[in-house]
Specification:
CATH topology: YaeB-like fold
Number of domains: 1
Radius of gyration: 12 Å
Helix content: 10-25%
Low-confidence stretches: none
Strand content: 35-45%
Number of helices: 2
Number of strands: 5
Strand order of the largest sheet: 1-5-4-3-2
Distance between the termini: 30 Å
Order of helices and strands: EHHEEEE
């Protein structure tokens, strides 16, 4: 099984500052798990992009894109 590399957009890193500090470890753990399975059961495909997805982590959403050919995941936004 090939693992995916995860890259964070700078604005997504800044988004973490506005999130409840108790939730940050859970969010980071879930994002890290995407490297093994970029399409977990709770993911949803977004209509706005061909390779854009959303995953819900408690009250927060993480928007990400998957490039299957290069085995890369881009974290775009935490909301």
């Amino acid at each position: 099984m090939a693992y995916y590399n995860i890259y964070w957009k700078e604005s997504a890193k800044r988004d973490l500052k506005s999130i409840d500090r108790q939730q940050i470890p859970r969010i980071i753990e879930t994002i890290s798990s995407l490297s093994q399975d970029p399409y977990p059961r709770q993911h949803r495909k977004l209509q706005s992009g061909e390779s854009s997805y959303r995953i819900r982590i408690g009250d927060y959403r993480v928007i990400y894109q998957v490039n299957s050919e290069q085995k890369v995941i881009f974290i775009l936004k935490n909301a």
